[in-house]
Design brief:
Two copies of one chain form a homodimer.
Chain A (H helix, E strand, L loop, with lengths): L13 H11 L12 H23 L6 H14 L2 H14 L4 H12 L17 H17 L4 H9 L4 H18 L3 H17 L5 E5 L6 H10 L8 H7 L4 E8 L8 E8 L6 H7 L10 E9 L10 H15 L5 E4 L6 H21 L18 H10 L9 H9 L10 H21 L1 E2 L2 E2 L2 H8 L3 E6 L6 H7 L3 E6 L4 H11 L6 H17 L1
Parallel strand pairs in A: 4-5
Antiparallel strand pairs in A: 1-2, 2-3, 3-4, 5-9, 6-7, 8-9
Chain lengths: ~525, ~525
């Protein structure tokens, strides 16, 4: 430590400082390198100070004045530029991992000992307890030696007021860095931190709390800020989402007070809604006693640093249990969900396939089609015919797919204003959307992130809805289509399991109907 | 699983069943072997069923119907006799530890790879990321392979409603078994479970709650049941401990609702109390605004299965912070504590030394004193003289120590009814008590468990008080002497550290005065 260093931050309680930092670094980007040379020097010095406080936080004896050092480190970290945060995290990943000399020494000792009683340990109870005790001790030491030194920092921050929040921000920064460059040591640190966070954020440590209009404004403000699916436009909108016929539940952790880690918005309805408009705006709420359906229409995580830790699964299960207990007349649990990856997948498919189609036109009469095995007409003949017929005034193209691509690409979404185009596009878009949801996979899991989320939680694909979200975001992401996933309490575990182990996507016959004819046509048209 | 096994327990929500079991197994002893042959057969069958549900709970895929299996296991476990619990825990420790064949295989792979960039990893950033990524992967696999399989059961129970409580009971049983027999594998399991519990019960996961007369009777009942230091005699006593001039704070974990893991009772006073009578009974409470001292007069852990996990340290620190914030006129934080090990130490010292004294009498004139190097007259000459003078009617003995031993041993504590004996014993007992607290150690730590607890938390020994606890327990444990430890917020961390690393026991000059003359006399009398 440098006691007289003028750039050294004063010791002070974490909470206020950190909260300020947090609101500045929302979206976890510290300002990137906009300072002049002088400020750069200050930043650089400050980097060394933060590095030292990190070192102290890790190497101090556990009974020492940890709180001050941890505050010091946290505040220092937040004051760093993104570039310096990156440097610090790399230092942590590389210089505070393992003492590998010690690991090898313990491995040598370990290998020098005989296994106790074989794997099944069918001992007659007359083993030498002294020897066994040595064996277990060395095994434990080896286990401990394989723990990276940075675990100490994680553990200490976790038990420090405000520290869990600091850890989620560290991890958000790590994920930003890893998205830009692949650094093995940092990836190893990230996977370690993620494991730790998963443990600490076990459902046992989380509290379910219904968020109402009576909650503090500081909490409601967070709901408005974090709502990721359907932005909350004003106070009336917020009040409605917390009022009659609506519920909002959050998962809270005692170490991150005043904001949920994840929250879900629920509408109590007579039937599963087909459009988001009717949920958010159109319909006045019904009598709650007449509701038969709880519709989950929005679920938002608030901490980017908790990416990959599935808190939603337990939240949904607990909310279902709670609603069933309090309102036994509600028997249907469904979502009205976006399909965030549909258009991206479709447009890239249309672009690549219409290029291949062009190539096919050229080599059409040639006998050599081996270069074209990836070619597939995404459209059915009838769909292509209607598109070509109705697109005249709007878009050109050498084939149906190119026309569709040119219709759907502009961000003005002009196609939605023409009833002719709407009815020409609808059959193709609905069929392709069903195909996207049920058949397009990556490593055996649904390609769409929201689909993957609900399917791994044990839901099934129930229905897809045309023009269900006419917002700019809805049109851009999924041509306005939304999907209802349904959770049946009695099949949640079974579906989750068969999806997890076999990649099986459960769906209603209504949705399957869209894709079954395709399979037949495919074989007849190719 | 044996679906048709008639002894199979029905699946049902855990909470009620477990709560019943809990109140039956308070003190964590299941009935030991009192059943007849027939019942034994049932128990035995039930053991196999519980063993199978334990196996399922560990080996199931994580998306399967875990909740039912974990309930099944927990209920099954509670239904077992202590003997069968022991058998099951040994099975868990021996057959669900490590796959050591896999460990050795991974060690082989690991040793086949070069260390990345040495220990200091001063790499120029041009390392082969592909190789490093393989290295970190194998290291992680090795780390994971060294985790015992039973960790899965612990982790799953921890995230299961009611499961943390089940784990504390498992551990209480394990500690009972280990107290009777030393089984290395079970000791290894215990140390692993203890590490896990420490992590899960980090202060970040605990909530401080002030317990008041407005709390549910079911919670207050637990306070009465668990109060370990000064038993609560009736409702009026309880109400007084929660009323004006008193505070009671508990540490709660969300997974163990309705009962604190540890709680502390505080009296707001004008001065540090010298006797427990004035705290519990004699004095009417003062105006809280006139208080200058917060006296911690009782601290009780409620879970035997959390032995060795220091929750008290954080509780005390948080309570001090809270009281300082709410009542800035309170500046003294002290305890009035029992000295549970004093009499046991003193009586055994008196017994052994008076025997050695006898031996010395015999070999008194002999030149060979080498066999007597451990001999020490525990009493000072003046103390011995007064004891011999005043003990005539009460006890005999060949020397002062034997007389003292004979006076103090009877459980009737007759010596407390004679003012002559009281004044003869007081100087010796007070001096020896100060010596016991300040100088008697085991592995560098205070021999007395309560002293060790407060010293490791950063307190100092402030004052010892004559006839401070005249209850049977107080007389038996410490001849009625109690001690005030003082916590000075500004020195807590420093004292905790010097005690931890150097075994330094901080004390006031008042207490040191008792032992300093002894050191001078010792050199002059020997």
């Amino acid at each position: 430590m440098r006691p007289n260093d003028p750039s050294k931050l004063a010791l002070s309680p974490l909470s206020n400082e950190v909260n300020q930092m947090l609101s500045n670094s929302q979206g976890n980007q510290a300002p990137r390198n906009t300072e002049d040379g002088n400020e750069k020097l200050n930043k650089q010095r400050s980097f060394e100070v933060v590095r030292e406080s990190m070192h102290s936080a890790i190497s101090m004896n556990k009974t020492e004045v940890l709180d001050a050092v941890l505050n010091d480190f946290s505040e220092g970290y937040f004051s760093l530029s993104f570039e310096n945060r990156r440097k610090l995290l790399l230092t942590l990943a590389k210089e505070y991992d393992l003492n590998r000399t010690q690991v090898r020494e313990l491995i040598k000792q370990y290998l020098g000992l005989q296994l106790p009683g074989g794997n099944e340990a069918q001992s007659g109870g007359v083993e030498d307890e002294g020897f066994l005790s040595t064996f277990y001790r060395i095994e434990r030491n080896l286990r401990h030696s394989l723990k990276p030194v940075y675990e100490v920092l994680f553990e200490r921050l976790n038990t420090h007021p405000g520290g869990l929040k600091v850890l989620t921000i560290l991890r958000a920064d790590i994920l930003s860095i890893l998205a830009a460059e692949n650094i093995s040591s940092l990836r190893a640190l990230d996977s370690y931190l993620k494991e730790k966070l998963s443990t600490w954020l076990s459902p046992a440590a989380l509290e379910l709390h219904q968020i109402t209009w009576d909650d503090p404004a500081s909490l409601l403000e967070k709901i408005v800020a974090y709502e990721a699916v359907h932005p909350i436009s004003n106070l009336i909108d917020l009040k409605r989402r917390l009022g009659v016929g609506r519920r909002c539940f959050g998962y809270f952790h005692s170490a991150i007070p005043g904001e949920p880690l994840i929250f879900i918005e629920v509408a109590l309805l007579k039937a599963v809604a087909q459009t988001i408009q009717e949920v958010l705006w159109d319909h006045p709420p019904i009598l709650e006693s007449e509701a038969t359906c709880a519709l989950f229409y929005s679920i938002s995580s608030t901490q980017p640093g908790l990416a990959g830790i599935n808190l939603g699964k337990f939240l949904i299960k607990r909310v279902i249990t709670l609603v069933r207990r309090d309102m036994p007349h509600i028997s249907v649990f469904a979502t009205l969900s976006p399909i965030p990856g549909f258009m991206q997948w479709l447009l890239s498919k249309l672009a690549s396939q219409s290029k291949l189609a062009e190539a096919e036109d050229i080599s059409c009469s040639s006998a050599d089609r081996s270069g074209l095995t990836f070619y597939e007409n995404v459209l059915e003949p009838e769909e292509e015919r209607r598109l070509i017929e109705s697109s005249g005034d709007f878009a050109a193209g050498k084939n149906g797919m190119e026309i569709m691509l040119n219709l759907l690409t502009p961000t003005s979404h002009d196609w939605t204003n023409s009833s002719k185009l709407l009815s020409a596009l609808k059959p193709a878009l609905m069929r392709l959307c069903a195909r996207y949801l049920l058949q397009e996979k990556k490593r055996g899991k649904a390609l769409d992130s929201v689909a993957n989320f609900h399917l791994q939680n044990g839901a099934m694909v129930q229905r897809i809805n045309w023009m269900a979200d006419r917002s700019e975001k809805g049109l851009r992401q999924s041509a306005g289509i939304m999907v209802n996933y349904v959770y049946r309490p009695e099949t949640i575990e079974e579906y989750a399991h068969s999806y997890f182990s076999l990649g099986h996507i459960h769906s209603s016959s209504d949705v399957r109907r869209y894709v079954q004819p395709l399979t037949e046509n495919e074989s007849s048209t190719n």
